[in-house]
Input
Amino acid sequence: YGVSAKAAQSVGPFLNELKAKMTNAIVTATVTVNYMHWEYTNLAAATWINVHAFENGTHVGPGAPVGQQSSLQFMKDAAAIWINKGIPASKLVLGIPAFGLRYSELDAAGNNASWGSYDYMPYKDIVAADATAAQKEYTAAIAKGVYFNGVPLVTEKANYIKATNFKGVYIWAADYDALGANGLIKTIHGILK
Output
């Protein structure tokens, strides 16, 4: 914890120093919304802040209930952390995952079995394995199930981002996205353009 806390605490002073030396430069930071979020100091020098608004962490680990760890509500809660820290929505870029949480083994209660019984799967591979996946956020057709952000959930997120005047959105990671009509970037672009 100590090393991580010091790293988070150093971001604000680093941004201030960088902005002072490069007055016309675009300076950004990517921040967490986990237990470390309270360690960040003043980030006002950033041109914008990328918020890791996905992966709530409650559906991994031994005995954890399976489920969607990148919901719309989690994204809203993640954004609220930074708005409550005084960062305006117009400086926040919210992250959306182009991957899913895949379970390979469940315990007797139907929960995640262990630290090694889940991994992450690119969205393009989810769509390739289940032709109907793009219109869902869960598929049982792969392993013991995969939770992800499909087109309907990403549409909700993009509409929320637009309606509340956030700076924008980023996809983690663009090369995990599907091409064509099932593409998340295509969906987001159609809403935010």
